[in-house]
Protein backbone atom coordinates (compact mmCIF):
# COMPACT_ATOMS: atom_id res chain seq x y z
CA UNK A 1 0.00 0.00 0.00
CA UNK A 2 1.27 3.42 -0.86
CA UNK A 3 1.92 5.95 1.82
CA UNK A 4 -0.38 8.89 0.94
CA UNK A 5 2.26 11.29 2.24
CA UNK A 6 4.82 9.90 -0.13
CA UNK A 7 2.80 10.55 -3.27
CA UNK A 8 5.04 11.66 -6.06
CA UNK A 9 3.71 14.85 -7.60
CA UNK A 10 4.53 13.45 -11.02
CA UNK A 11 1.68 10.98 -10.51
CA UNK A 12 -0.86 13.74 -10.03
CA UNK A 13 -2.87 15.23 -12.88
CA UNK A 14 -1.16 18.20 -14.44
CA UNK A 15 -2.60 21.66 -15.02
CA UNK A 16 -3.86 22.05 -18.59
CA UNK A 17 -3.17 25.80 -18.61
CA UNK A 18 -0.73 28.25 -17.00
CA UNK A 19 -3.54 29.83 -14.95
CA UNK A 20 -4.26 26.55 -13.15
CA UNK A 21 -2.16 25.38 -10.25
CA UNK A 22 -2.26 21.99 -8.51
CA UNK A 23 -1.03 21.62 -4.96
CA UNK A 24 0.89 18.63 -3.66
CA UNK A 25 -2.35 16.91 -2.67
CA UNK A 26 -3.68 17.24 -6.21
CA UNK A 27 -6.14 20.05 -5.49
CA UNK A 28 -6.50 22.46 -8.41
CA UNK A 29 -7.04 26.19 -8.14
CA UNK A 30 -6.76 29.23 -10.36
CA UNK A 31 -3.69 31.41 -10.31
CA UNK A 32 -3.30 34.83 -11.90
CA UNK A 33 -1.04 37.84 -11.86
CA UNK A 34 -1.78 41.44 -11.00
CA UNK A 35 0.35 44.47 -11.76
CA UNK A 36 0.94 46.38 -8.53
CA UNK A 37 1.71 49.51 -10.54
CA UNK A 38 -1.51 49.82 -12.58
CA UNK A 39 -3.83 47.07 -11.30
CA UNK A 40 -4.14 45.12 -14.56
CA UNK A 41 -4.78 41.40 -14.16
CA UNK A 42 -3.59 38.52 -16.30
CA UNK A 43 -4.63 34.88 -16.66
CA UNK A 44 -1.03 33.81 -16.44
CA UNK A 45 1.62 32.89 -13.92
CA UNK A 46 4.84 33.64 -15.75
CA UNK A 47 4.54 37.09 -17.33
CA UNK A 48 7.66 39.09 -18.16
CA UNK A 49 6.11 42.52 -17.67
CA UNK A 50 2.77 44.36 -17.62
CA UNK A 51 1.29 44.83 -21.10
CA UNK A 52 -0.59 47.94 -20.02
CA UNK A 53 2.01 50.05 -18.20
CA UNK A 54 5.24 48.20 -18.90
CA UNK A 55 6.15 47.58 -15.24
CA UNK A 56 8.69 44.78 -14.99
CA UNK A 57 8.31 41.33 -13.49
CA UNK A 58 9.09 42.52 -9.95
CA UNK A 59 5.90 44.60 -10.00
CA UNK A 60 3.73 41.56 -10.80
CA UNK A 61 2.13 39.74 -7.87
CA UNK A 62 0.48 36.36 -7.91
CA UNK A 63 -3.06 36.04 -6.59
CA UNK A 64 -5.91 33.58 -6.46
CA UNK A 65 -8.84 34.89 -8.52
CA UNK A 66 -12.47 34.58 -7.54
CA UNK A 67 -14.20 31.41 -8.69
CA UNK A 68 -17.27 33.31 -9.84
CA UNK A 69 -17.77 35.78 -12.59
CA UNK A 70 -20.03 37.15 -15.32
CA UNK A 71 -20.51 35.68 -18.78
CA UNK A 72 -19.23 38.37 -21.15
CA UNK A 73 -19.78 36.51 -24.40
CA UNK A 74 -20.50 33.00 -25.61
CA UNK A 75 -21.17 31.10 -28.81
CA UNK A 76 -22.66 27.66 -29.43
CA UNK A 77 -20.11 25.65 -31.38
CA UNK A 78 -21.83 23.22 -33.71
CA UNK A 79 -19.04 22.45 -36.15
CA UNK A 80 -15.71 21.57 -34.57
CA UNK A 81 -12.41 20.17 -35.66
CA UNK A 82 -12.41 16.43 -36.41
CA UNK A 83 -12.62 14.41 -33.20
CA UNK A 84 -14.03 17.22 -31.09
CA UNK A 85 -17.51 16.52 -29.78
CA UNK A 86 -20.15 19.16 -30.52
CA UNK A 87 -22.19 21.05 -29.56
CA UNK A 88 -20.42 22.86 -26.76
CA UNK A 89 -20.42 26.44 -25.53
CA UNK A 90 -17.30 28.55 -25.95
CA UNK A 91 -17.36 31.28 -23.33
CA UNK A 92 -15.53 34.42 -22.26
CA UNK A 93 -15.95 35.13 -18.54
CA UNK A 94 -14.95 38.15 -16.51
CA UNK A 95 -14.00 36.73 -13.10
CA UNK A 96 -14.92 39.03 -10.22
CA UNK A 97 -11.86 41.20 -9.67
CA UNK A 98 -10.27 39.87 -12.87
CA UNK A 99 -8.84 38.45 -14.97
CA UNK A 100 -10.94 37.45 -18.00
CA UNK A 101 -10.83 33.73 -18.78
CA UNK A 102 -11.87 31.78 -21.81
CA UNK A 103 -13.24 28.29 -21.43
CA UNK A 104 -16.05 25.86 -22.03
CA UNK A 105 -19.41 26.55 -20.38
CA UNK A 106 -21.13 23.29 -19.46
CA UNK A 107 -24.29 22.45 -17.59
CA UNK A 108 -26.53 24.80 -19.53
CA UNK A 109 -30.15 23.69 -19.92
CA UNK A 110 -29.60 23.22 -23.62
CA UNK A 111 -27.84 24.70 -26.59
CA UNK A 112 -30.19 27.50 -27.52
CA UNK A 113 -29.35 31.22 -27.60
CA UNK A 114 -31.25 31.85 -24.33
CA UNK A 115 -29.02 29.30 -22.59
CA UNK A 116 -25.91 31.37 -23.26
CA UNK A 117 -27.31 34.82 -22.42
CA UNK A 118 -24.55 37.29 -21.64
CA UNK A 119 -24.48 38.83 -18.19
CA UNK A 120 -25.41 35.61 -16.38
CA UNK A 121 -23.41 34.52 -13.36
CA UNK A 122 -21.13 31.53 -13.74
CA UNK A 123 -18.74 29.68 -11.47
CA UNK A 124 -15.46 27.91 -12.14
CA UNK A 125 -15.08 24.22 -11.48
CA UNK A 126 -12.28 21.80 -12.24
CA UNK A 127 -12.40 18.46 -13.95
CA UNK A 128 -10.38 16.07 -16.02
CA UNK A 129 -9.50 17.46 -19.48
CA UNK A 130 -12.03 15.27 -21.32
CA UNK A 131 -9.81 12.24 -20.82
CA UNK A 132 -7.12 13.64 -23.07
CA UNK A 133 -3.59 12.57 -22.20
CA UNK A 134 -0.19 13.62 -23.44
CA UNK A 135 2.33 11.36 -25.17
CA UNK A 136 3.59 10.02 -21.82
CA UNK A 137 0.06 9.17 -20.73
CA UNK A 138 -0.26 11.98 -18.18
CA UNK A 139 -3.73 13.26 -17.28
CA UNK A 140 -4.62 16.93 -17.13
CA UNK A 141 -6.99 19.07 -15.10
CA UNK A 142 -8.90 21.87 -16.81
CA UNK A 143 -11.30 24.57 -15.68
CA UNK A 144 -14.92 24.67 -16.79
CA UNK A 145 -17.64 27.23 -16.29
CA UNK A 146 -21.09 26.31 -15.01
CA UNK A 147 -24.17 28.50 -14.55
CA UNK A 148 -24.51 29.57 -10.90
CA UNK A 149 -28.26 29.04 -11.16
CA UNK A 150 -27.85 25.41 -12.18
CA UNK B 1 8.67 68.73 -50.72
CA UNK B 2 7.21 65.41 -49.76
CA UNK B 3 5.90 63.54 -52.76
CA UNK B 4 2.60 61.73 -53.05
CA UNK B 5 2.73 57.98 -53.63
CA UNK B 6 0.55 56.20 -56.19
CA UNK B 7 -0.71 52.82 -57.24
CA UNK B 8 -0.14 52.66 -61.00
CA UNK B 9 -0.94 49.01 -61.63
CA UNK B 10 -3.07 46.64 -59.61
CA UNK B 11 -4.59 43.24 -60.22
CA UNK B 12 -6.32 40.37 -58.48
CA UNK B 13 -6.74 36.99 -60.09
CA UNK B 14 -10.18 35.40 -60.04
CA UNK B 15 -10.35 33.91 -56.55
CA UNK B 16 -11.16 30.21 -56.51
CA UNK B 17 -9.68 26.74 -56.61
CA UNK B 18 -6.34 26.17 -58.32
CA UNK B 19 -5.21 22.74 -57.10
CA UNK B 20 -2.85 22.29 -60.04
CA UNK B 21 -1.04 25.60 -59.74
CA UNK B 22 1.61 26.63 -57.21
CA UNK B 23 1.39 29.71 -54.99
CA UNK B 24 4.30 31.17 -56.98
CA UNK B 25 2.38 30.74 -60.23
CA UNK B 26 -0.69 32.44 -58.78
CA UNK B 27 1.43 35.32 -57.47
CA UNK B 28 3.30 35.59 -60.76
CA UNK B 29 0.03 35.84 -62.67
CA UNK B 30 -1.17 38.73 -60.49
CA UNK B 31 2.23 40.44 -60.58
CA UNK B 32 2.53 40.30 -64.38
CA UNK B 33 -0.92 41.84 -64.82
CA UNK B 34 -0.04 44.63 -62.37
CA UNK B 35 3.26 45.28 -64.18
CA UNK B 36 1.46 45.40 -67.53
CA UNK B 37 -1.13 47.84 -66.25
CA UNK B 38 1.66 50.05 -64.87
CA UNK B 39 3.45 49.79 -68.23
CA UNK B 40 6.67 48.64 -66.55
CA UNK B 41 8.65 45.40 -66.61
CA UNK B 42 10.19 43.40 -63.79
CA UNK B 43 13.45 45.18 -64.65
CA UNK B 44 11.96 48.49 -63.51
CA UNK B 45 11.09 47.08 -60.07
CA UNK B 46 13.58 48.15 -57.39
CA UNK B 47 12.17 46.27 -54.42
CA UNK B 48 9.51 43.67 -53.65
CA UNK B 49 7.33 43.43 -50.55
CA UNK B 50 5.49 40.14 -50.66
CA UNK B 51 3.43 38.11 -48.29
CA UNK B 52 1.98 34.69 -47.65
CA UNK B 53 0.97 33.02 -44.42
CA UNK B 54 1.30 29.47 -45.72
CA UNK B 55 4.23 29.65 -48.19
CA UNK B 56 7.68 30.77 -47.13
CA UNK B 57 9.87 33.04 -49.29
CA UNK B 58 6.95 33.71 -51.61
CA UNK B 59 8.57 36.80 -53.18
CA UNK B 60 11.62 34.85 -54.27
CA UNK B 61 9.44 32.07 -55.63
CA UNK B 62 7.49 34.60 -57.70
CA UNK B 63 10.59 36.26 -59.10
CA UNK B 64 11.95 32.82 -59.96
CA UNK B 65 8.90 32.71 -62.26
CA UNK B 66 8.94 36.23 -63.70
CA UNK B 67 12.49 37.60 -63.42
CA UNK B 68 15.34 37.12 -60.96
CA UNK B 69 16.70 40.64 -61.01
CA UNK B 70 18.47 40.41 -57.66
CA UNK B 71 16.45 43.19 -56.01
CA UNK B 72 15.64 43.37 -52.32
CA UNK B 73 12.68 41.15 -51.36
CA UNK B 74 11.05 41.27 -47.95
CA UNK B 75 8.45 38.61 -47.16
CA UNK B 76 5.74 39.41 -44.66
CA UNK B 77 3.57 37.29 -42.42
CA UNK B 78 1.02 39.52 -40.72
CA UNK B 79 -2.14 37.42 -40.68
CA UNK B 80 -5.05 38.90 -42.64
CA UNK B 81 -3.31 42.27 -42.85
CA UNK B 82 -0.35 40.81 -44.78
CA UNK B 83 -1.17 42.22 -48.23
CA UNK B 84 -2.00 45.67 -46.90
CA UNK B 85 1.22 45.53 -44.85
CA UNK B 86 3.18 45.04 -48.07
CA UNK B 87 1.63 48.17 -49.56
CA UNK B 88 2.22 50.06 -46.32
CA UNK B 89 5.92 49.08 -46.44
CA UNK B 90 6.19 50.09 -50.08
CA UNK B 91 4.60 53.42 -49.20
CA UNK B 92 7.09 54.15 -46.42
CA UNK B 93 10.07 52.90 -48.42
CA UNK B 94 9.22 55.23 -51.32
CA UNK B 95 8.49 58.09 -48.89
CA UNK B 96 11.96 57.54 -47.47
CA UNK B 97 13.32 58.19 -50.93
CA UNK B 98 15.16 54.94 -51.37
CA UNK B 99 13.00 53.55 -54.20
CA UNK B 100 10.62 54.97 -56.78
CA UNK B 101 9.06 51.79 -58.21
CA UNK B 102 8.09 48.88 -55.97
CA UNK B 103 6.09 45.67 -56.45
CA UNK B 104 3.74 44.31 -53.77
CA UNK B 105 2.23 40.82 -53.93
CA UNK B 106 0.02 38.81 -51.62
CA UNK B 107 -0.63 35.12 -52.27
CA UNK B 108 -2.42 32.30 -50.51
CA UNK B 109 -3.27 28.77 -51.51
CA UNK B 110 -5.86 27.50 -49.06
CA UNK B 111 -7.89 24.79 -50.77
CA UNK B 112 -8.30 21.92 -48.32
CA UNK B 113 -7.10 23.79 -45.25
CA UNK B 114 -10.48 23.41 -43.56
CA UNK B 115 -11.72 25.59 -40.75
CA UNK B 116 -9.02 27.97 -39.58
CA UNK B 117 -7.99 28.60 -36.02
CA UNK B 118 -6.71 26.41 -33.26
CA UNK B 119 -4.82 26.86 -30.05
CA UNK B 120 -1.04 26.91 -29.86
CA UNK B 121 0.31 23.37 -29.76
CA UNK B 122 0.62 22.14 -26.19
CA UNK B 123 0.68 18.88 -24.29
CA UNK B 124 -2.95 18.06 -25.12
CA UNK B 125 -5.44 19.39 -27.69
CA UNK B 126 -7.48 22.15 -26.05
CA UNK B 127 -10.39 22.60 -28.48
CA UNK B 128 -13.60 22.00 -26.53
CA UNK B 129 -11.82 22.52 -23.20
CA UNK B 130 -10.59 26.07 -23.61
CA UNK B 131 -13.82 26.94 -25.42
CA UNK B 132 -13.16 27.11 -29.15
CA UNK B 133 -10.27 28.69 -30.99
CA UNK B 134 -11.89 28.34 -34.42
CA UNK B 135 -12.26 31.61 -36.27
CA UNK B 136 -16.08 31.34 -36.43
CA UNK B 137 -16.18 30.97 -32.63
CA UNK B 138 -13.70 33.78 -32.01
CA UNK B 139 -15.52 36.20 -34.30
CA UNK B 140 -18.89 34.97 -33.07
CA UNK B 141 -17.85 35.91 -29.52
CA UNK B 142 -16.84 39.34 -30.74
CA UNK B 143 -20.21 39.66 -32.50
CA UNK B 144 -22.14 38.65 -29.38
CA UNK B 145 -20.21 41.27 -27.40
CA UNK B 146 -21.29 43.84 -30.02
CA UNK B 147 -24.89 42.59 -29.96
CA UNK B 148 -25.05 42.92 -26.17
CA UNK B 149 -23.93 46.55 -26.50
CA UNK B 150 -26.07 47.59 -29.47
CA UNK B 151 -29.08 45.30 -29.70
CA UNK B 152 -27.94 43.83 -33.01
CA UNK B 153 -29.68 40.53 -33.80
CA UNK B 154 -28.60 37.43 -35.69
CA UNK B 155 -30.83 38.64 -38.53
CA UNK B 156 -28.88 41.92 -38.67
CA UNK B 157 -25.67 39.95 -39.03
CA UNK B 158 -27.28 37.74 -41.66
CA UNK B 159 -28.42 40.80 -43.61
CA UNK B 160 -24.75 41.67 -44.17
CA UNK B 161 -24.33 38.32 -45.94
CA UNK B 162 -27.46 38.97 -48.00
CA UNK B 163 -26.08 42.36 -49.11
CA UNK B 164 -22.55 41.22 -49.85
CA UNK B 165 -23.57 38.07 -51.70
CA UNK B 166 -25.94 40.19 -53.79
CA UNK B 167 -23.10 42.56 -54.67
CA UNK B 168 -20.94 39.63 -55.73
CA UNK B 169 -23.43 38.58 -58.39
CA UNK B 170 -22.00 41.58 -60.28
CA UNK B 171 -18.35 40.67 -59.64
CA UNK B 172 -16.89 38.03 -61.97
CA UNK B 173 -13.78 37.71 -59.78
CA UNK B 174 -15.74 36.58 -56.72
CA UNK B 175 -15.85 32.89 -55.79
CA UNK B 176 -19.42 32.80 -54.47
CA UNK B 177 -21.81 34.50 -56.89
CA UNK B 178 -25.37 33.76 -55.98
CA UNK B 179 -28.20 35.53 -54.23
CA UNK B 180 -28.68 34.32 -50.66
CA UNK B 181 -32.00 35.58 -49.27
CA UNK B 182 -32.26 36.12 -45.54
CA UNK B 183 -34.03 32.81 -44.84
CA UNK B 184 -31.31 30.96 -46.75
CA UNK B 185 -28.56 32.62 -44.70
CA UNK B 186 -30.31 31.98 -41.39
CA UNK B 187 -31.23 28.44 -42.41
CA UNK B 188 -27.72 27.41 -43.42
CA UNK B 189 -25.71 25.09 -41.18
CA UNK B 190 -24.81 26.76 -37.89
CA UNK B 191 -21.04 26.75 -37.47
CA UNK B 192 -20.83 28.70 -34.22
CA UNK B 193 -24.09 30.41 -33.26
CA UNK B 194 -24.80 33.17 -34.19
CA UNK B 195 -22.79 32.46 -37.35
CA UNK B 196 -24.12 30.16 -40.05
CA UNK B 197 -22.02 28.84 -42.92
CA UNK B 198 -23.21 31.63 -45.23
CA UNK B 199 -22.00 34.20 -42.68
CA UNK B 200 -18.42 32.92 -42.88
CA UNK B 201 -15.88 33.76 -45.59
CA UNK B 202 -14.63 30.89 -47.70
CA UNK B 203 -11.09 29.52 -47.94
CA UNK B 204 -9.96 30.01 -51.53
CA UNK B 205 -6.76 30.29 -53.53
CA UNK B 206 -5.92 33.80 -54.63
CA UNK B 207 -3.31 36.38 -55.42
CA UNK B 208 -3.23 40.14 -55.83
CA UNK B 209 -0.44 42.52 -56.75
CA UNK B 210 0.21 46.24 -57.03
CA UNK B 211 2.93 48.46 -58.47
CA UNK B 212 3.57 51.46 -56.23
CA UNK B 213 5.38 54.51 -57.60
CA UNK B 214 6.63 57.92 -56.52
CA UNK B 215 4.94 61.02 -57.92
CA UNK B 216 8.07 62.03 -59.80
CA UNK B 217 8.28 58.66 -61.50
CA UNK B 218 4.56 58.59 -62.31
CA UNK B 219 4.92 61.94 -64.09
CA UNK B 220 8.14 60.95 -65.81
CA UNK B 221 6.53 57.81 -67.22
CA UNK B 222 3.27 59.56 -68.07
CA UNK B 223 1.09 57.28 -65.92
CA UNK B 224 -1.13 59.87 -64.19
CA UNK B 225 -4.10 58.68 -66.29
CA UNK B 226 -4.27 55.44 -64.31
CA UNK B 227 -2.69 56.57 -61.04
CA UNK B 228 -4.48 56.15 -57.72
CA UNK B 229 -3.13 58.49 -55.04
CA UNK B 230 -2.57 56.99 -51.58
CA UNK B 231 -4.01 59.70 -49.36
CA UNK B 232 -3.72 57.77 -46.12
CA UNK B 233 -1.79 54.67 -45.09
CA UNK B 234 -1.88 53.56 -41.48
CA UNK B 235 -1.52 50.45 -39.40
CA UNK B 236 -2.02 49.65 -35.73
CA UNK B 237 -1.77 46.71 -33.37
CA UNK B 238 -4.12 45.97 -30.49
CA UNK B 239 -3.77 48.55 -27.73
CA UNK B 240 -3.97 47.15 -24.19
CA UNK B 241 -7.52 46.24 -23.32
CA UNK B 242 -8.56 44.18 -20.31
CA UNK B 243 -9.76 41.14 -22.28
CA UNK B 244 -7.19 41.08 -25.08
CA UNK B 245 -5.74 38.64 -26.08
CA UNK B 246 -7.96 36.16 -24.15
CA UNK B 247 -10.62 37.65 -26.40
CA UNK B 248 -8.94 39.10 -29.47
CA UNK B 249 -9.78 42.76 -29.95
CA UNK B 250 -10.42 43.61 -33.61
CA UNK B 251 -12.07 46.92 -32.73
CA UNK B 252 -9.28 48.85 -30.99
CA UNK B 253 -6.60 48.41 -33.68
CA UNK B 254 -9.09 49.23 -36.45
CA UNK B 255 -10.06 52.44 -34.67
CA UNK B 256 -6.44 53.46 -34.17
CA UNK B 257 -5.52 52.79 -37.80
CA UNK B 258 -8.60 54.62 -39.07
CA UNK B 259 -7.91 57.68 -36.95
CA UNK B 260 -4.35 57.84 -38.27
CA UNK B 261 -5.43 57.33 -41.88
CA UNK B 262 -8.10 60.07 -41.70
CA UNK B 263 -5.59 62.47 -40.13
CA UNK B 264 -2.98 61.70 -42.75
CA UNK B 265 -5.48 62.24 -45.56
CA UNK B 266 -6.95 65.35 -43.97
CA UNK B 267 -10.37 63.78 -44.53
CA UNK B 268 -13.39 62.81 -42.47
CA UNK B 269 -15.65 59.78 -42.72
CA UNK B 270 -18.28 61.78 -44.63
CA UNK B 271 -15.71 62.35 -47.40
CA UNK B 272 -15.47 58.62 -48.16
CA UNK B 273 -17.51 57.40 -51.15
CA UNK B 274 -17.08 53.64 -50.67
CA UNK B 275 -15.39 51.20 -48.33
CA UNK B 276 -13.98 47.70 -48.73
CA UNK B 277 -13.69 46.40 -45.18
CA UNK B 278 -12.72 43.13 -43.54
CA UNK B 279 -15.94 41.10 -43.45
CA UNK B 280 -14.27 37.78 -42.68
CA UNK B 281 -17.53 37.04 -40.83
CA UNK B 282 -20.83 38.85 -41.37
CA UNK B 283 -21.18 40.12 -37.80
CA UNK B 284 -17.90 42.00 -37.78
CA UNK B 285 -18.94 44.23 -40.70
CA UNK B 286 -21.35 46.05 -38.35
CA UNK B 287 -18.58 46.46 -35.78
CA UNK B 288 -16.32 47.99 -38.40
CA UNK B 289 -18.98 50.50 -39.53
CA UNK B 290 -18.48 52.02 -36.11
CA UNK B 291 -14.74 51.38 -35.85
CA UNK B 292 -14.15 53.18 -39.15
CA UNK B 293 -16.35 56.09 -38.11
CA UNK B 294 -18.95 55.48 -40.84
CA UNK B 295 -21.62 56.05 -38.16
CA UNK B 296 -21.83 56.90 -34.49
CA UNK B 297 -21.44 54.46 -31.60
CA UNK B 298 -24.18 51.84 -31.64
CA UNK B 299 -25.47 52.97 -35.04
CA UNK B 300 -23.99 50.13 -37.09
CA UNK B 301 -27.27 48.25 -36.82
CA UNK B 302 -29.15 51.17 -38.34
CA UNK B 303 -26.77 51.28 -41.31
CA UNK B 304 -27.54 47.71 -42.33
CA UNK B 305 -31.27 48.02 -41.58
CA UNK B 306 -31.83 51.19 -43.60
CA UNK B 307 -29.73 50.16 -46.58
CA UNK B 308 -27.09 52.88 -46.15
CA UNK B 309 -24.30 50.49 -47.03
CA UNK B 310 -25.91 49.01 -50.13
CA UNK B 311 -24.95 50.14 -53.61
CA UNK B 312 -26.82 53.43 -54.05
CA UNK B 313 -26.83 54.02 -50.29
CA UNK B 314 -25.06 56.84 -48.46
CA UNK B 315 -21.87 54.82 -47.95
CA UNK B 316 -21.66 51.59 -49.96
CA UNK B 317 -19.62 48.92 -48.18
CA UNK B 318 -18.11 45.81 -49.76
CA UNK B 319 -19.49 46.44 -53.21
CA UNK B 320 -17.14 43.70 -54.43
CA UNK B 321 -19.09 41.16 -52.41
CA UNK B 322 -16.54 41.35 -49.65
CA UNK B 323 -14.56 38.50 -48.21
CA UNK B 324 -17.87 36.71 -47.67
CA UNK B 325 -18.26 36.35 -51.45
CA UNK B 326 -14.85 36.80 -53.03
CA UNK B 327 -13.33 34.32 -50.62
CA UNK B 328 -10.52 35.17 -48.26
CA UNK B 329 -7.05 34.06 -49.40
CA UNK B 330 -5.45 35.57 -46.31
CA UNK B 331 -2.40 37.44 -47.64
CA UNK B 332 -4.04 38.39 -50.94
CA UNK B 333 -7.09 40.01 -49.39
CA UNK B 334 -5.55 43.37 -48.47
CA UNK B 335 -4.43 44.13 -52.02
CA UNK B 336 -7.63 42.67 -53.48
CA UNK B 337 -9.62 45.21 -51.43
CA UNK B 338 -7.47 47.96 -52.95
CA UNK B 339 -8.07 46.53 -56.42
CA UNK B 340 -11.81 46.97 -55.96
CA UNK B 341 -11.43 50.58 -54.84
CA UNK B 342 -9.15 51.30 -57.82
CA UNK B 343 -11.80 49.98 -60.23
CA UNK B 344 -14.42 52.35 -58.82
CA UNK B 345 -12.16 55.40 -58.71
CA UNK B 346 -11.27 54.77 -62.35
CA UNK B 347 -14.92 54.20 -63.26
CA UNK B 348 -14.18 50.65 -64.43
CA UNK B 349 -16.37 48.70 -61.99
CA UNK B 350 -19.09 47.95 -64.52
CA UNK B 351 -22.49 46.91 -63.24
CA UNK B 352 -21.57 47.52 -59.58
CA UNK B 353 -19.90 50.91 -60.16
CA UNK B 354 -20.43 53.42 -57.34
CA UNK B 355 -21.38 56.52 -59.31
CA UNK B 356 -19.01 59.44 -58.97
CA UNK B 357 -16.67 57.67 -56.57
CA UNK B 358 -13.71 59.92 -55.79
CA UNK B 359 -12.44 58.73 -52.42
CA UNK B 360 -12.30 55.10 -51.32
CA UNK B 361 -11.17 53.32 -48.16
CA UNK B 362 -9.78 49.83 -47.59
CA UNK B 363 -9.50 48.00 -44.29
CA UNK B 364 -8.18 44.66 -43.14
CA UNK B 365 -7.54 43.27 -39.70
CA UNK B 366 -5.57 40.17 -38.80
CA UNK B 367 -5.97 38.45 -35.47
CA UNK B 368 -3.12 38.80 -33.11
CA UNK B 369 -3.73 41.73 -33.91
CA UNK B 370 -2.88 44.00 -36.85
CA UNK B 371 -5.19 46.44 -38.62
CA UNK B 372 -4.49 48.43 -41.78
CA UNK B 373 -6.52 51.29 -43.23
CA UNK B 374 -5.77 53.01 -46.53
CA UNK B 375 -7.53 55.93 -48.19
CA UNK B 376 -7.30 56.39 -51.96
CA UNK B 377 -8.19 59.10 -54.47
CA UNK B 378 -8.10 59.10 -58.26
CA UNK B 379 -5.19 61.26 -59.37
Explain how this protein is built:
The complex is a heterodimer of chains A (150) and B (379). Chain A is mainly β and 150 residues long. Helix content of chain A is 0%, strand content 43%. Chain A has no helices and eleven strands. Chain A has strands spanning 14-15, 20-22, 28-30, 32-35, 41-42, 60-63, 68-77, 88-95, 100-105, 121-133, 139-147. In chain A, the strands form three sheets. A six-stranded mixed sheet of chain A has the order 1-11-10-7-8-9, with no helix packed on it. The relative contact order of chain A is 0.19. The model of chain A has no long low-confidence stretch (mean pLDDT 93). Helix content of chain B is 35%, strand content 19%. In chain B, helix 1 packs across helix 2 and helix 5 crosses helix 9 (282-291). Classes of the chains: A mainly beta (150), B alpha/beta (379).
Overall number of strands of chain A: 11
Tell me the structural class of chain B: alpha/beta
Classify the beta-strand content of chain A into a percent band: 35-45%
Cα gyration radius of chain B (Å): 19 Å
Brief overview:
The complex is a heterodimer of chains A (150) and B (379). With 150 residues, chain A is mostly beta strands.
List keywords for this structure.
heterodimer, A: 150 residues, mainly beta, three-stranded antiparallel sheet, B: 379 residues, Peroxisomal Thiolase, Chain A, domain 1, nine-stranded mixed sheet, 12 helices
Layout of strands and helices, then pairs:
The complex is a heterodimer of chains A (about 150) and B (about 375).
Chain A: E1 14-15, E2 20-22, E3 28-30, E4 32-35, E5 41-42, E6 60-63, E7 68-77, E8 88-95, E9 100-105, E10 121-133, E11 139-147
Chain B: E1 5-12, H1 23-37, E2 47-51, H2 58-66, E3 72-76, H3 82-95, E4 101-108, H4 135-150, H5 154-168, H6 182-187, E5 190-193, E6 195-196, E7 206-214, H7 215-221, E8 228-237, H8 251-265, E9 274-276, H9 282-291, H10 300-305, H11 322-326, H12 333-345, E10 359-366, E11 370-378
Parallel strand pairs in B: 2-3, 2-4, 9-10
Antiparallel strand pairs in B: 1-7, 1-8, 4-7, 5-6, 8-11, 10-11
